[in-house]
Specification:
Layout (H helix, E strand, L loop, with lengths): L2 H8 L2 H17 L6 H8 L3 H12 L3 H15 L6 H13 L1
């Protein structure tokens, strides 16, 4: 099977939806350990299919995507658990 034929057979709306659903699952579960077994079980794709599909749809490997999601989450979270309370307190002070 030629490379073009192979790519055309895996570039489908169904596969795109399944990869997007997997990306949502990754985002929801990025705090726990995620390995190839979990990715395959969750998506129904093999290790090789996951790599190929992520390269096509996300331009990166699944593991790189997981690292990116974790980094984004880390950057968006306050560094200290009480940080949100301080922000709320500051807003209360500013409003008075």
């Amino acid at each position: 099977m030629s490379r073009v034929t192979k790519i055309n057979t895996i570039v489908t709306a169904s596969n795109a939806e399944r990869i997007e659903a997997l990306c949502v699952w990754i985002a929801d579960n990025c705090d726990s350990s995620i390995g190839w077994d979990q990715l395959s079980k969750q998506s129904g794709f093999s290790h090789k299919e996951l790599i190929t599909l992520f390269q096509l749809y996300k331009q990166q490997t699944p593991m790189a995507f997981i690292r990116q999601v974790r980094e984004q989450k880390k950057k968006s979270l306050p560094s200290h658990p009480q940080y949100a309370l301080f922000l709320q307190k500051d807003k209360l002070i500013d409003n008075n």
